[in-house]
Input
Amino acid sequence: MDIDDILAEVSGDSLPPETRDLQDLTRVWVTERSAPELLPWPSALMERIERVEAQVGNIDPKTNFRLIIIQTELERFKFLVRSFLRTRIAKIDQHTLYILNNRTQSARLSWSELQYANAHQTSLETHYRSSFLSHFPTSLQRLDDTAGGISMIEQPDVDKAVFIRVLRDGEEPIIVEGTDIDFQMRRGDVYVVRWSAVRDSVLSGDAELM
Output
């Protein structure tokens, strides 16, 4: 999507690319806010939004009245992007060490988020050591200690209940571990279920969080 595509579609009958991107952004925003753990960074979508914002910012609206419409739409994008980023940063702040030590989770960070997470963890460790950890025995100074089979690293609650809407019929039944519950997903169905049971279905696009 670029500015020429947007202007060409504004007066057309088909669904404009920016409307599709707004729908996609709304979906990832809702999903990120509802999921208990960090989800993959939507790099392609964010790159399109950044490209259009840069193109619109370099053009005088007085030269094309329709650009005012695009700029108004961009404000809606910016609101969602800011809320989306705040949600992700809150998860990074709460589970920094877990995310950095987990390859799957760290791979879901954008480059800027990865830099932030590393800087945040470094600052925390420096503060803790100067405040109290330096007074502890060396064996008790680790922030990722797993002695006694208990990890000090706080992890997301993947058994949290979430609302999902099924987008595609499932081929295999969903099994909720630790219970005798299993069900077959059918398009249009809505469920309240543990995130751990439907995580793969949401990440694959077979279902969406509500």
About this structure: Helices lie at 3-10, 17-34, 43-57, 66-94, 96-101, 103-106, 111-131, 195-204. The two ends are 27 Å apart (CA to CA). The chain has eight helices and five strands. The first helix runs from residue 3 to 10.
